[in-house]
Amino acid sequence: FKKTSEVYSLENSKGPVLKSKEIALVHPEGNVSVEDVIEKNGKSVKIRSKSSFPPNINEKLIGRYIFSMAQPAIQLLNGQPVTVIQISPKPNAPSSGRADDIANAMAGTLYIDLENFYTKKLEANLTRKKSWAWGLISVEQLQISFEQEIFNGIIVVKSITATYKYNILGIGTYDKRVFTYSDYSYIVPQPRQ
Q: Residue 20: its pLDDT value, please?
């Protein structure tokens, strides 16, 4: 599949400004997946690395959040019926670092596809500012959107968008990072030799 990564600065009052764009082809090679970056900021490149697939969203949510039905519980998302579930962090959720601290301060909405029973979309926001190292590092804003779809009977990631505002040593950054996944194709597994 093709993975496009774009980073936009949101600090300009005239709107988002593209800071970087990268296009990669992700495919299996032996027992691992590799990512061949083919374009970086409009220029052809050849960079190969191991691929990090998008996260399994269900594994990330279980054990960390309280789930409750929204009202109305069934709504339409892009013309398709979905069950809408609100998520909020459990008090005393486990944490082993900054990423967990941030996840434990997020709340949002899950949209579950009623026809195929999968997480079609997740939208979440940081509920409070998080800071570390006596306030020298802080995350003031974080919004995440995660979308999936079905391709040839398999659930695949469509996009991940994160908008974030953070400060390190008083230097602020306000960006939006967008990952889009497209051009999925089925590759027949090769027998082991």
A: 95
What burial class does residue 5 get, using C-beta atoms within 10 Å of its C-beta: 0-12 exposed, 13-18 middle, 19+ buried? middle
Burial 118-150 (b: 16+ CB within 10 A, else e): ebbbbbbebeeebeeeeeeebbeebbbebbbbe
The residues of the chain scoring below 70 in pLDDT are: 52-58, 60, 187-193
Whole-number Å distance between alpha carbons of 95 and 152 = 37
What span, in angstroms and rounded, lies between the C-alpha atoms of 100 and 59? 13
At 103 the three-state DSSP class reads helix
CB of 7 closer than 8 Å to CB of 175: yes
Tell me phi and psi for residue 121, to 5 degrees: -155, 145
The reported pLDDT for the residue numbered 83 is 93
- Record the pTM: 0.83
The Cα–Cα gap between 51 and 174 comes to 26
Count other C-beta atoms under 10 Å from residue 100's C-beta: 13
Report the alpha-carbon distance of residue 176 to residue 16 in Å, rounded.
Answer: 8
- The first and second tokens of residue 26, run together, are 């992700």
Residue pair 65/57 in contact (Cβ under 8 Å)? The answer is no
Cβ atoms of 152 and 186 within 8 Å: the answer is: yes
Buried b (16+ CB within 10 A) or exposed e, 44-54: eeeeeeebeee
